[in-house]
């Protein structure tokens, strides 16, 4: 039986992808990408995502204001996302988290909304999708304070992981999934390739983060879910297994995390 891919993170309703969405999703299906998590980062992308799912039931929506935008949009957007989470329109909360590389929003405001989204995820019994860049110490501190249920961390994924080996180990130690994007295919991503080798198969997700971060052979092009196959193939080579093993493991992990079993 042919195996399938699960793109765990793509911005399908972004301005870059949405105008050509039918063709993009057609190419995804041709490439055996059979399930996609659409990441909604504002009200426009959320409403488009909810409409998109009616035509493509194999596309699921997650939503949150990104750390970049919480200072500008957080107060207005949070209650709308919370309402849709409570109504069952979302399969996860995210991407939320912390980003000190760009610091488009002050750190204290990032912390405030990160905590609010973690609390919302717990309330709605949904996993979280995390963006974290150069903020891992504060990320782990807040996660350990806010996101514990019965002595264990509630479920989540560190999306588009680009941290160090030790940071990856901290993510994995908490029982979380770790998702790798096309960055792992880049020639200079030496430490990330080592991370790919150490991630257990039962904690691995793969993603495109489309329209961003097209894999090595597509550099300079707009990324799309069909390209996740290259990321899977590179990870398979790094781990010394076949691509089917990576596709099947990451698919099963995503089904479990997003409660699609």
Q: What would you note in describing this structure?
A:
The protein has 261 residues and is an alpha/beta fold. It has a single domain (5-257), classed as Alpha-Beta Barrel (TIM Barrel), CATH 3.20.20.140. It is 44% helix and 18% strand. It contains 9 helices and 10 strands. The strands form 2 sheets. The chain has an 8-stranded parallel beta sheet. The chain has a two-stranded antiparallel ribbon with strand order 6-7. Helix 6 links the parallel strand 8 (156-158) and strand 9. Helix 3 packs parallel to helix 4 (107-124) and helix 4 (107-124) packs parallel to helix 5. The relative contact order is 0.15. The mean pLDDT is 97.
CATH fold-level name: TIM Barrel
Profile the largest sheet. Answer: 8 strands, parallel
- Overall SS class: alpha/beta
Q: Give, in spatial order, the strands making up the sheet with the most strands.
A: 1-2-3-4-5-8-9-10
Number of E-state strands: 10
- What's the shape? globular
β-strand percent reads 15-25%
Unreliable segments (pLDDT under 50, ≥5 consecutive)?
A: none
Mean pLDDT: 97
CATH architecture: Alpha-Beta Barrel
CATH top level is Alpha Beta
Rounded to an integer, what's the Rg over CA atoms?
Answer: 17 Å
Helix content: 40-55%
How far do the termini sit from each other? 19 Å
* Domains (count): 1
Q: Summarize the helix and strand pattern as letters.
A: EHEHEHEHEHEEEHEHEHH
What are its keywords?
single chain; 261 residues; alpha/beta; TIM Barrel; 9 helices
